[in-house]
Give the backbone structure.
Amino acid sequence: MAYIRLLVLFLGLFFINLTAFAQTDENPAVWSHEVNKLSDTEYELVFKAKIMDGWHIYSQYTDEGGSLPSEFTFEKAGEHYELVGKTEESETIIEYSDIFEVDETFFKEEAIFTQKIKLLDPEVNQISVNLFYQICKEVCLPVDEYFQISLDGSGFVAEETALDERSVALGESLKVDLKNKNLLNQNGVTDSEGKSNLWVIFGLGFIGGLIALLTPCVFPMIPLTVSFFTKQTKNKSKGIANAILYGFFIVLIYFLLSLPFHLFNSVDSQILNTIATNIWLNVFFFIIFVFFAFSFFGYYELTLPSSWANKMDSASSKVGGGLGIFFMALTLAIVSFSCTGPILGGLLGSTTLAEGNVATNLTSGMVGFGLALALPFALFAMFPAWLNSLPKSGGWMTTVKVVLGFLELALAFKFLSNADLVGNWGIFKREIFVGIWVVLFVLMTLYLFGIFRFPHDGPKKKLSSTRKAIGLVSFAFTVYLVLGLFNITQLKLLSGFPPPSFYSVVETESDCPLGLDCYKDFEEGVAYAQKVNKPILLDFTGWACVNCRKMEENVWSDSNIYPILKEDYVLISLYVDDRKELPESEKFDFKYDSGRVKPIETIGQKWGTFQTINFNAASQPYYVLLSPNLEILNEAVQYVDVETYEKWLRSGLEKHHLSMNK
C-alpha cells in the first residue's frame, strides 16, 4: 500500500510539473482539485494552485486595504451539503506593503485550500465551487476560477446556465479588442497616493482626543485623578507608575473598541467600505451625526447607563492594584461618553470616507484618540506643578462642545450628499451643499461672538480673546465658502468634499468635470475619437470617489494639463457606482468565463464589469490612454501628482502621433 501511495504521489507531481509549462504572464496560476472521501456523507475538498515564479496569490484573510482577498463561493451550500468549519490554507507569507500601507498575507509558488463538507442530500454526487482571487506581480489581476467537482469520480455533468440571445450579444459587446494590452501590465498601475495614510488617521484621532480633553466630561477629571494617584500612595514613584498605567489602560480600552470592526471585515471584507456608495448607509450616518450634533448643542445628553459606571467604580475600589486601575480607566470611558461618543462617531465617519482598510484606519485613529486622552494623566502625575497652569473649568468647555456640534452637522451633510450623488436625486447640488455649509459656519460665527445662545450655556459673560479668535477663524472660513459659492475661488482646501463643480443648479456647458466635453458611453466616445482622429482618455470614476474629485480639482485644473484634456484628447468618463437603472432593453445577464452569471441592471454595474473584464482592475480613479483604434498608449495611472500626470499625457500624445506617421 505504501508503494502505491508513493506511485500516486510521484504521478501527481509529474502531472503538476507538466501543467506548469502552461503558465504564462497571461495565466500565471494553474489550478487543480482533488476529493478525499472521509465517510459516506463527509468529504474533503482540496484546491491547489501552482504559482508562476514572481507572482503571488492573496490569502482569504489578508488585511483589507491592500489587494482583494481570495473568496470561495460554494454553490448550493446549505441546500445540498453543509460546510464543516472554515476553508483552511497552506502556509502563507505576511509582508508589509509600502504601497497600500497594510500587512498583506499571500502564497508564493503554491497555494492549497482545504474545505470539509457534509452531504445533506445523499443523492448529490457533484458540486460547483467558484473562487475569486487576485494574483499579483507588479500588477494585480482579478481572476474567477470555476471548479466542477465529481464526488464519486464518475465525471461532472455540467448544468449549463442558458442565456438568451440578447444577453449573449450585450455581454459580447462589453468585451473590447484592445491592442498592445501587455503595456497595462508592464510597470503596474502608477498610484502615488496609494491608500489612506495610517499616520494621518492616527493624527486625526490624536487631535480628536485633545479636543475631547477640553470638554466638561473629561477636563475636570484631570486634576482629580492625578491628585488621587499622587496622594494615594506615600511613594511618589509608585504614584507616577500608577498614573502611567492608568494612561496605558485608557489607550488599551479605545484600541479594544475598534476590534469588532476587524471581526466585521473577517465576515465580509467590504462591509465597511460600502459606506462610500451605499445610499441608505449614507442616510443612516447623516441621521446619526445630526443626533450627535444636537447632543453637543445641549438639547439632550448621550449617556451610557449609570449602573455601568457605578459597577466599574465599585470594582476598582474592591479589586485594587493594576486591575483596579483598569476599572478606573473603564469608568472614565463610560462617564465621559456623552462628550467622547460623538467625537468617536466623527472619527468612524472620517475613516469610512477615507481610502484603505476601514478597520485598520479606525484602530489607528482610536489609538491616537486614547493616547491624547491618556497623556495628561501621566504627564501631570510626573510634573504635578504643571496643574497650576491648567485653566479653570468653566463655560469655555460648553463653547467647545457647541463648536463640535457645528462640525458634526457639516460632516453629516457630506454623507447626505454622497447618497444624493449615487442615487441621482439631483437635490444637493454643489451650490446647495456649499450654501448649507455657509449657513452652518455663519451660525457658528454668530454663536462664538455671543449673538445667540444654546440651552446649556451659562450666564452671559464677556467674551474671551480665545473665543473671539476662533470666531474670526470661523468668519474667515465662511467668507472662503461664500467666494467658492460664487465661483470666485475653487475651494481647493475642501477638494473632494463638496459635490463636483458640474453637479450644479446652474446650467453648465456639460455635465463633465471642469466643463470639459466628455462621453459617458464608451462606444459613442470611441466613434467620435475615430471621427476626429484624437487619442482617448478613458476615465473610470465614481460619484462618491473622493480621490477622483481631488484629481479633477487639483490635477486636471492645472494650467498645463487642462488645455491638453480639452484640446488633444477625447474624454470618456464611466461612473462605476452610478445606481441609475438601465433601460429594460439594455439590462442583461453577463456570464464570466468561469460560468458565473451576473445581472447587469444599472449603469454602474455595466461599467464596473466593463473595467474588470477588459482592464483587470476594479479601483477608481483609473485612467487609460487609448488610440482611436483601441491601442493602449501607456501604462494605466491612478492618483498621481501634476508633473507625473502631464508627462503621462504627453507621452500618450507622442505615441499616437508616431503611429499616425507610420
Summary: The first strand starts at residue 29 and ends at 37. The chain is about 45% helix and 15% strand.
